[in-house]
Amino acid sequence: MPVTRAILTLNSGSSSLKLGLFTETLETLALAHVDRIGRREAAMVIRDAAGARLPLPAAAPDAFATNAAALRTALATFEAQFDGLDVIAVGHRIVHGGTDHAAPERITEPLMADLARLAPFAPLHQPHNLAGVRAALEAFPGTPQIACYDTAFHRGHPFVSDTFALPRRYYEKGVRRYGFHGLSYDYITSELARSEPALHAGRVAVAHLGSGASMCAIAQGRSVASTMGFSALEGLPMGTRPGELDPGILLYMLDEEGLTSHEIATLLYKESGLLGMSGLSNDMRVLEASDAPRAQEAIDYFCFRIRRQVGAMAAAMGGLDGVVFCGGIGENSGRVRAQACEGLEFLGLEIDAAANAANARDIGSGRVRVLVLPTNEEIVIARGASAVLDL
Ligand code: ADP
């Protein structure tokens, strides 16, 4: 019987699960995405390397009741598709590696305990990532599991990009500007190294615009600044998170409105951003299609904050040679890309309207290159697993 040796990647969120299946030589076999886990509308899509949808087996009613169930269902689908599937390693996206974990590494029980201690730094992500590890340990006992950190790409930041102006003890306690979306920035950097070596050697502002959104200043392939900070709330506005906020607003909510910290967390993580501003949706497609003034204002604010940060990233790097857009919005919304770059001609940034409307790869017409590059966090996790295991 033929055997398919494969590396599995897992990105386990609060209500979604993304899986990737790769050969030992890092060719993509399949990608799966389960959404709305735990709800009746839960759904899974599995695609092969060419993007064609693979058939789903008849799913039991509780197939997507929990992340662990969704993992079993997705694995059953992979097993039906690939003869003698032999998972030789599982790579995990772990949002927070703290100050100490700056490269992919094999997961042990002491490491799990260490990562669990970082959960208060990323309360809405880290526990779900670690639950994904537990589920995979159960599904593949004895198979090496590798942690790949979203914070790792940013660990080399200079002190001024890493700190807040708080009493020094907070810095020592780990209250720092970590930066996230590192797996995506790592991928974009590798793509630039492969296909645009001159740009890779220069100064690039990368905008990862998905449900979560951030920007990163990457000079000579290294992160020097990020809009994300201590938590995944900082920086750009996002689908349901506000981004940069005057901390005085939190004091106002606590002292004047009497909100509890739990209520504030819900407001900041789930009710703000594009959703809160528009009162309509966190989905950019819905906002773009709407003629409601608040939907348009939400998009205007989103683009304005990106534009300000392009300037900030250029300042952090002492100039700008390229801008890269990625993530669901960055890869698909010509409106957002054009509006975010508006008025930045003084930096050498100009958009070719026709190329932008066609979602072309190269959409700049000025001195600064402007690229649209589909990101691929899964392959970065697979590469990390492969490197740790020396495959
Ligand atoms: P996640 O961070 O959950 O992986 P994605 O990177 O898939 O999210 O990005 C999700 C966002 O991308 C949503 O706001 C969605 O509306 C937006 N998006 C996807 N396709 C388009 C499109 N064709 N036009 C505008 N926005 C889009």
Automatic annotation (TrEMBL):
Binding residues annotated for ATP, in chain numbering: K18, H208, L209, G210, S211, G212, D283, M284, R285, G328, I329, G330, E331, N332
Names of the cofactor(s): Mg(2+); Mn(2+)
The protein's annotated pathway: Metabolic intermediate biosynthesis; acetyl-CoA biosynthesis; acetyl-CoA from acetate: step 1/2
Site entry: Transition state stabilizer: H181, R241
Enzyme nomenclature, EC number: 2.7.2.1
Stored Pfam families: Acetate_kinase
Keyword Magnesium: yes
Family assignment from sequence similarity: Belongs to the acetokinase family.
Protein name: Acetate kinase
Native species: Thioclava atlantica
Name of the gene: ackA
